[in-house]
Design a protein that fits this description.
The structure holds 3 protein chains of 3 kinds.
Chain A lengths: L2 E11 L5 E11 L3 E5 L6 H8 L7 E6 L6 H4 L2 E4 L11 H11 L5 H10 L13 H13 L5 E5 L7 H13 L6 E5 L3 H4 L5 E6 L2 E7 H8 L3 H8 L3
Chain B lengths: L1 H32 L4 H8 L8 H37 L3 H4 L6 H42 L4 H7 L1 H12 L4 H29 L6 H33 L10 H23 L5
Helix pairs in contact in B: 1-3, 1-5, 2-5, 3-5, 3-8, 5-8, 8-9, 8-10, 9-10
Chain C lengths: L10 H14 L12 H8 L3 H13 L3 E4 L3 E4 L3 H26 L3 H12 L1
Antiparallel strand pairs in C: 1-2
Helix pairs in contact in C: 1-3, 2-3
The chains are: A alpha/beta, B mainly alpha, C mainly alpha.
Chain lengths: 233, 279, 119
């Protein structure tokens, strides 16, 4: 079974006028790095929350590896939210132990190596780190897991360009044909060459799901440029 | 997984709770010391005290601080537990908590257990502190007016002391003591579940989650009070007709609290699994 | 350092060109070993699947040979490499001559300009 994520008729309606995700049907295979692109309010965050079991659909279903979101899928999904979600009073080393405790697929040595590479002292408390460094720590924790699905929400937005390169190289290096990565971002140009495929969302609906090279060939322009065309204000 | 959650909850709360206990211990010592002034030893002898020194005034002030400290520690621990729950469940940390590979039951139970544990420890220590203080005061009063030590007096007269305690508190038999332990446990768990339930109910509101939580907390407390009084009305009537003997029916409050705790628990479980929407 | 790629052309085609250049120029000598897909993708900062596609294309053309146990190597067929080199050179020349024509430079002027700059 090569389908990692199966979305069928997925809808999230808060009320009659506020429909965040509207009847979405989509299947994502394993072994891909997929960009989730769309303007603010297009339903990206809602979709991500539903994949992580943080939100319950109004209609339709979403399945990861054949299971509905729950404790089982959470063990196989590595999620990086676009906010500082870790306990500030803890040290980085304590967070490593925490992750190791709860996630069987966590590779602590890998995480330690990456912290070293980025010059982050594991004995420092989260609250003493700069915002960019906090984001790096969170990313390292997530990427050190050996999950089936990685969902990264704006992983490079708050990070300096050098670290961005390091992060993208880590993502490429981590590539596993049995797993997929979903990257939600606004910085399309920076990551385009790292993506296999892209998803365009607008008003909670699927506008496009195609490979980067196909779009370049068919449109004669980069995905970034094409996005600007499609979503021109 | 539940064990791990409990361990982690414990690790993240034990420091502050131990600080509270140490604070309680310090205040107890200071409270006891505050009775060792000239003012008190004269007062116990029945003499009028005219010239109060600075030491006397600070002793009396210390007593006031002690009372504030006891109330503060108990209320403070509840507030700390509420804030800790909120941070872990419904602030940004909630993104971590609710994506852990654990069930919502495990999330709730771990917090309920650790919160109740700490609260009961703090309450017992507060009671112990008061007992120590009262004993210390009585010992001073005793030493000033009688000979020998208070302790030997108590041991020598223990039977008559117990008898008069039993009489004035209407303790019929050992069943009273027997019931007070589960009663304490129930009311502790009830208190913590009320906090947890109120915070979770608050999540149902779109924009005013914290406000809604506070309102829910008071609503739950008021509802419990109302139902409690309604249930207890016939009980009190029977008691007043039977020489103050309520035949153990005031255990109904325990039952009420258990029911409310269970209802809040499942309500919270439902909200977390089906209605959660973190910011 | 990530490879510099045009943003408006398919990536895999550009990867094919780039690796071809590296083979022709001798950076990867005939019979020489090529890095793994993952390593090269990391170096180029591109998606491994895209790099895989480029390798597949180069294999199809015979420029790269995949051996079961020892990974990918450049072909030892120097003739083929030479041919491709000639073809690419001709293409560049074609572009060059067209540009010169656009500038209105005659055939004789082109030849003298070339011998000047080559010396």
């Amino acid at each position: 079974m090569n389908d990692l994520v199966e979305i069928v008729g997925l809808t999230k309606a808060y009320d009659a006028r506020n429909i965040a995700v509207n009847n979405m049907t989509l299947t994502l295979p394993k072994g891909r790095i997929i960009g989730l692109l769309g303007p603010n309010g297009s339903g990206k965050t809602t979709l991500i929350k539903m994949m992580n079991g943080l939100l319950v659909p109004t209609q339709g279903s979403i399945k990861i590896n054949g299971h509905f979101p729950g404790a089982e899928t959470k063990a196989r999904v590595a999620y990086l939210p676009d906010k500082t979600y870790l306990n500030h009073s803890q040290k980085v080393s304590e967070l490593l132990v925490f992750y190791q405790d709860f996630y069987q697929d966590f590779e602590i040595d890998k995480a330690k190596k990456m912290l070293e590479n980025l010059g982050i002292d594991p004995s420092s408390k989260m609250k003493t780190l700069s915002k960019g460094t906090k984001e790096k720590v969170q990313l390292i924790l997530v990427m050190s897991r050996n999950a089936d699905l990685y969902i990264l929400d704006e992983p490079i937005a708050g990070v300096d360009p050098a670290a961005r390169d390091y992060i993208l190289k880590t993502i490429i290096n981590n590539y596993n044909p049995e797993a997929s990565i979903i990257l939600a971002t606004h910085l399309i140009g920076d990551i385009e060459s790292v993506l296999d495929e892209v998803i365009f969302l607008r008003y909670g609906q699927l506008v496009l799901y195609n490979s980067v090279d196909n779009i370049r060939e068919q449109q004669g322009k980069s995905v970034d440029a094409y996005f600007r065309e499609v979503f021109a204000c | 997984m539940l064990g791990k959650l409990i361990k982690h909850e414990w690790k993240s709360t034990y420091k502050i709770c131990c600080v509270m206990l140490i604070f309680l211990a310090v205040m107890t010592i200071l409270g006891c010391l505050s009775f060792r002034t000239q003012f008190w030893s004269e007062a116990f002898k029945g003499n009028d005290v005219n010239n109060l020194t600075i030491l006397d005034y600070s002793g009396i002030l210390m007593l006031v601080f002690y009372v504030i400290a006891i109330i503060g520690v108990i209320c403070g621990s509840l507030i700390y537990i509420a804030v800790h729950f909120y941070k872990g469940l419904y602030s940004e940390e909630g993104y971590l908590t609710h994506t852990l590979p654990v069930s919502s039951h495990e999330i709730l139970i771990s917090r309920l257990l650790v919160g109740s544990c700490w609260y009961i420890i703090i309450c017992i220590m507060a009671i112990l502190s008061i007992v120590i203080l009262v004993y210390s005061v009585m010992a001073i009063a005793f030493s000033v007016t009688e000979s020998g030590s208070l302790l030997s007096y108590i041991i020598a007269n223990r039977d008559s002391i117990f008898a008069s305690i039993r009489e004035s508190y209407n303790i019929e038999s050992w069943s009273y003591v027997f019931w007070s332990i589960p009663s304490m446990i129930v009311s502790t768990v009830y208190s913590i579940m009320t906090i947890l339930g109120a915070l979770t109910l608050g999540q149902l509101s779109g924009k005013h989650k914290v406000m809604m939580s506070i309102v829910s907390y008071f609503a739950i407390t008021v509802v419990q009070s109302l139902i409690n009084n309604i249930i207890l009305l016939p009980v009190m009537l029977t008691a007043s007709m039977n020489n103050g003997n309520s035949f153990g029916w005031n255990n109904l409050t325990i039952v009420l609290n258990v029911v409310i705790t269970v209802v809040l628990y499942f309500l919270s479980y439902f909200i977390i699994t089906k209605k959660l929407n973190l910011e | 350092m990530a490879w510099e790629l045009d943003s408006d052309r398919p990536i895999y085609a550009q990867l094919v060109e780039r690796i071809q250049m590296q083979i022709i120029s001798g950076y990867y000598p005939p019979g020489g070993k090529l890095p793994s897909v993952r390593d090269l993708a990391t170096e180029a900062a591109v998606n491994p699947n895209t790099m895989q596609k480029a390798f597949a294309e180069l294999e199809r053309s015979g420029l790269i040979i995949t051996q079961r146990t020892s990974g990918r190597t450049v072909t030892e067929d120097i003739g083929m490499i030479g041919e491709i080199k000639q073809e690419l050179a001709k293409e560049h020349l074609k572009d060059f001559i067209e540009k010169m024509k656009e500038l209105g430079i005659t055939k004789e002027e082109i030849l003298s300009l070339i011998s000047e700059s080559v010396n």
